[in-house]
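Example record

The entry below shows one chain as it appears in the dataset: sequence first, then structure tokens.
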Amino acid sequence: MTEANPLDYTGKVVVVTGGGRGVGRGITDAFLAAGADVVICGRTKPSAGDMPAHDGRRAVFVACDVRDAEQATEVVSKTTERFGRLDVLVNNAGGSPSVPAADASARFISQVIALNLVAPFYCAQAANRVMRDQAGGGSIVNIASVSGRRPSPGTAPYGAAKAGLINLTRSLAMEWAPAVRVNCVVAGMIATEAADDHYGGPEGLRAVAATVPLGRLGTPADVAGVCLFLASPLASYLSGAAVEADGGGEWPPFLAAVDSTVSDGPGPRPGA
């Protein structure tokens, strides 16, 4: 007798916020390839030729600003109206341009926190109302960031919001158990179009990659793989977890300083 593949999402329904580009696109592609029906949402619809698809199955797009509670609820409502259930929510939509904390306006701060913390809360509430009453419950995966674990100079509101998202994950996991599992991916530095701009192009990306023990930036597929795991039966006893997908972290700056004065110190150095 052949055992069922725990990463087969055939018959499952998944919502990915911001699922049309960047990390979200990688997550959408992975769930589609695993057999799921996927709904993505965002303020801008991908072009017809760029809509995520796999083996003739296309993602369904719902226009939405997830910072608005009613619109976030509508995404879930439209999903259940079409497919009859919701098994997985991936709260991926987020991000922030770089602005010094001293110069950040009140509106900028509120909008960044709304997108990266409040919006996932709204979407999770809407998903929970469906998942708690359906057979099999459901799984919510929040996409957090290493910026929520360490100082985030230049993107202070973003880092604070992601720290809040990690805490929110743990609180919701306790409140909504056992029907709904809630976990988060603490994503490290990921190579996307936005990263190319943020780190100053290819040379900057190579320099930043050298600070990661695995020697490279992450990819959207790396984050997607963790999402597939967390939402699967393989992770059935994980809830409230913050899984770090960061290539091993970042080399402590003091090692580079030591390397400049000690020729044969212990272990590798950034860029070695």
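Notes for this example: The chain has eight helices and nine strands. Residues 265-272 have pLDDT under 50 and may be disordered.
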